[in-house]
Write a structure and sequence with these properties.
- This protein is of the alpha+beta class.
- It has one domain.
- Helix content is about 30%, strand content about 45%.
- The protein is built from two helices and four strands, in the order H-E-E-H-E-E.
- Strands 1-2-4-3 form a four-stranded antiparallel sheet.
- It is elongated.
- This is Lipoprotein.
- It comes from Acinetobacter baumannii.
C-alpha cells in the first residue's frame, strides 16, 4: 500500500470518528442529598459555552422552572487511544458536570 493511500485512509478514519459524537444530550442524576448532577459530553469541537448552556437548560427542566443554585461545576478534556485496522490514534472528548440544588 503506498504512503499516499495510507495517509488518506488514516485522515478519513480520523475525521469519521471525530464526527461521531458532536454533543450528547444533558443527563440528570439525582444525588442522595436531594441535589442533582447534570452532565453532558462532546467531542473536542463542542464549545464549553454550548455545553454549559445545554446543562443549564436541563437544570431548568429538572427544577420545573423554579430556578436552581449552582453548587459546583467541572469542565474536563479526556483523551483515549482508538485502535483501527493496524492504526492507533488518539480521540479526544470533553465533559461538563454541574451539581445543582433546586430552589
Amino acid at each position: 500500500m503506498n504512503k499516499y493511500l495510507m495517509l488518506t485512509l488514516l485522515a478519513t478514519s480520523t475525521l469519521s470518528l471525530t464526527g461521531c459524537a458532536q454533543m450528547f444530550p444533558a443527563q440528570a442524576t439525582k444525588l442522595e442529598n436531594g441535589n442533582y448532577m447534570i452532565q453532558t459530553t462532546s467531542n473536542i469541537l463542542g464549545s464549553n459555552e454550548a455545553m454549559e448552556n445545554k446543562v443549564n437548560k436541563k437544570a431548568e427542566t429538572v427544577c420545573a422552572g423554579k430556578g436552581f443554585t449552582e453548587i459546583n461545576n467541572n469542565h474536563q478534556t479526556h483523551s483515549q487511544k482508538i485502535y483501527t485496522a493496524q492504526v492507533i490514534t488518539t480521540g479526544t472528548f470533553k465533559t461538563f458536570n454541574k451539581t445543582i440544588k433546586c430552589n
